[in-house]
Amino acid sequence: MATKNMRTTTGSVNEHAKEALRLSKDYVRHMWSHDVEWCLDRVAPGFVWIGSQKDYYASTRDEYAGMLKTTGAMLRRSTVAEEAYTVAYADDQVYCVVGRFLVLTPPDSDKIYARWHRCTLVWQRTGRRYALAHLHLSSPVDYVEDGESYPISAGTETYRYMRSLMKLGSSRKSVSLYDVDGTVHWVHPSQIIYLEANRKRTIVHCVTKDIVVPAVIRDAVEMVDNKIMRVHRSYAVNRDHVVELKAGRLLLDDGTSIAIPAKRIADVRAELIG
Known about the structure:
This protein is an alpha+beta fold. It is built from 6 helices and 15 strands. The chain is elongated, with a radius of gyration of 23 Å.
C-alpha cells in the first residue's frame, strides 16, 4: 500500500511541477511585457523578491510593483528570447524553477537594450492555485573576458543587437537553417557572424546562438547570403562583422580571431575592400 501511494504522489508532483514550469515561462513574459496587474495577481501575500540592482534586495510586493511600473516606462514591449527553464525542486506544495532568458527591445524602440538574465521562481500550491512566493533575478557579472582590455561585457549583447538592427533595413530576407536535430531556425543574414567547418557539418555562429547544420561549409555558405565570404578552407565570415585584418589574422566584432593562410591574405583584403 505504501509503495502504491508513493507512486501516486510522485506522479502528482511531476504533474504539478510541469504546471509550475509553464507558469514560470508565462510569468517572465508577462513581467517583461510590463503587465503589472497580471503579475501582482499571481504573487503570494508574503511575496519577497530580489532584483539584479544593488537596492533590489529582499524587497516587498509594493516595491516590486513600483519596479515593474518604472521599467515599463523605459522598456515597453520588450521581447523575451532564448529561454531555458528547469524544475530544480518539487514536492506536494512547493516548486522551484530556475532559468535564463535574453531580453530585447523592439526594433522600432527609441532605446536599444539586449541583456541576459537568470531567474529563480518559487511557487506555492494550495489546491489548484499557484502563488509566487519568491522571485530572484540576476544578470551575469561583468568581468574582463578574453580579448577585452577592460570590462565592456555590460554592453556586449546590446552592441551586437544594435549592429544587427542597423542591417535589418537591407533587402536581404531571413533564411531557414535546419540543424542536425531537424529543428528549423529562421535567421536574418545580418545575425550570422561566421561559419566554421566541422567535418561533414558546419557550425553557423550567430549573434545569440550557434546552429549546427548537416552540410559541408561550401554548401552552407550557398544557403546563407552573398555577404558571407570564404577566408579559409574551414572558415567563412560575414563581411559586416569584420573589424580588422592585421598580421595575417581576421578579427571579428564578437572577439573571434581567424588566422588567414599567407597565400590568401591578398585575396581576402581585396574582397573586403571590394
